[in-house]
Fold this sequence. Notes:
The chain is of the alpha+beta class. It has helices at residues 12-23, 51-56, 59-63, 104-117, 165-169, 192-196, 240-249, 252-259, 303-323, 328-355, 359-365, 376-384, 392-407, and strands at residues 2-8, 28-31, 43-47, 66-67, 69-75, 82-88, 98-102, 121-123, 126-133, 138-144, 147-158, 173-190, 202-208, 211-217, 222-230, 262-263, 268-277, 285-287, 293-294.
Amino acid sequence: MNYDIAIIGAGLTGSATAALLAKQGFKVILLDKGTGLNFHLSETLLVQDLTLLDSLGITNQIANTYHYEMVCYYLDKDARQKVRISHTFDKSYTDGTYLVRVDREKFDKTLLDCAIKNGVVYRPCCEIKNIDFTENATEIFYNHASNNCKISAKFIVDASGKSSLLANKLNLKSQIKKLDDRVTIFSHFESEAIRSGLESHAIYITEIKNGYIFIAPLPGNRFSVGLVLSEQAQGNFTSSEEIFFSLIKETPWINRSVLDSHQVLPVITANNHSYLCKNLLTNKYALVGEAAAFRDPFLCNGISANLKIVEKTVEAIVAIFSNISAHPAYTETYENDVNIILENQTKKLLSWIDSYSLKLSVQGLADPHIPYGIPYFLLSAFKSSNESCVSSINLMNAARKTFSEQIS
């Protein structure tokens, strides 16, 4: 089959890009390794000027995915002592900007449904095998339902997230920065009984040596269990699985939850780093979302920033199809636009937090690590760090400094 545009990844950026392009008359196929149900933790959205949602006519549907309370439970290892911390967001600020929490599964599903409604061909459960750029088209080879398949497209959009399919294939990742010595090791489990006992959108934290362990509810009967600890704490363990289950056994209440559940995801390790890709746009492809860049997990790219980048991506693709090729100056403009959006998003969020004196909320409820946890170390930064926390940036640096002091 031949298409104008093939998009890899049906998450937020992939589905939004597909919906906008299809609405403009392009023949679009959306390939995804998943099944259409994205198991994301709730995410913070800075609501501001979300014109993309208006143009797709789904603003009210998306608003139904918002919730306004952040909740964290701190527990001891036996869950005999438990403290609940919550924060409710206020929508009354005069500049029209406010924070909400977003149910990502519903948010992403709304965008995917919109793409399909606009005529996008959606193909889930696809394993990309190879991408071959030829003079006139791009050929994508993939496995679907145990069948080897091939499609051709004039243009490809990589929205594969941190998998960064094209960036890895073409060696485009640059400015890779290690932020600190923390590492996350996590997996997903299913149990109706365990999941029903967890408060929706909350996260449960227990301190362990050199880090913390968490449980967070996901859609359906699924929940995530993860460790956040120093790289040195991995010690003489021979694998991520060994350290994961060994440390879980030392936390009785979490160990009971795991033993009474079914593991549905392999143990995954994620290091704490950021990156930015080069050559984001050519006449053959575009990188969008976290396939193009991932910022400091304290702030992450942000939903609103990614939606703005999607709009720029679609503008660029329309121009490329009009002019047949991507002029170098236009390519540079697109990369500058992406960087400006990410920088402005960071500045806006930090300014908004500082201006409205939300440091206590950041202190207890910020998103400081993959996946958006609420670590003990952010709180302890205020107890043991001599660094003045007069701004959000200083707060984040203090949290990292505290972590480093405690593992040294």
